[in-house]
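User: Predict the structure for this protein chain, please.
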Amino acid sequence: LALMGALPRFDSYGRIAGASLIPLETLGRPRIDVVMTLSGIFRDLMPLQIRLLADAAYLAASADEPVEMNWVRKHALAYQAAHACSLETAALRVYGNAEGAYGANVNNLVESSRWDQEEELAETYKRRKGFAYGRTGRAEQHTALLQSALADVQLTYQNLESVELGVTTVDNYFDTLGGITRAVRQAKGGSDNTPVYIGDQTRGDGTVRSLSEQVALETRTRMLNPKWYEGMLESGYEGVRQIEVHVTNAMGWSATTGQVQPWVYKQLTETFMLDPQMRERLAKLNPTASARVANRLIEAFERNYWQPDAETLQALRRAGEELEDRLEGIQEGAPA
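Assistant: Here is the predicted structure, written as structure tokens:
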């Protein structure tokens, strides 16, 4: 709302009734165009807020203001001409899943390794999240309009609001923020390096970091921090699975944004796979997840997200084969 230069409007009962625009002379700057994406949960829980955001975008698009001071209107007029649609349709800026559907499915593709090119992730995101929510609160598919809006995006951004959950802790972040970033790059022709920012609102006034900085910070303070991973190992089976989840989520960010620094994979490999004692501990607690850690690090190499030297790669492959052999042996020896 602040970026668009709008405020919520309330009825006499204190309920959200729509939006109102801050006059340009009060705002003191141009209205900034914003594409907003919703999770299925927020869509279900916050219908009034969805209509509020959609109303703000429409009011900005239809305001009789100079387009150089109102980028929402400037883009909406261009989209209206390009798609031969009404201004209200061209002003749609709130996107999400179809009603009753959840997630972008980018996370599932990454976790299952069932994708070949990053463009597949972008297409999946647009197909799943190409439903626009207008002032009525109902969803209508507008994938082509979303494509036009994404081509004008200059940066992508998401708030981080819990000290318990980071961008490498759960896959929802790369599923949504990563997914839209990959879709933006595709809409711009594939060569654009769109900046990605994380607003860490967990302490004080908050801090804005680049995604690369945020992943590096979480890697150092969690994955490579003995206090963190020893705590995970004390949890046994589930703790090792959490380690594997972090590695997979890091690769999800590589696949969707390319903003994971190669040293992340190098140090994860050295900490968890090339240390024989650590590898043994992981395998004893959770043989399946420990083998997946090795396979995910090898997959990251094969997808060109990092380039280990020949000795490191050979050692990683040997570790992966050892864990796979051990897993197969355990499975073969298990009771029917």
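The radius of gyration is 23 Å.
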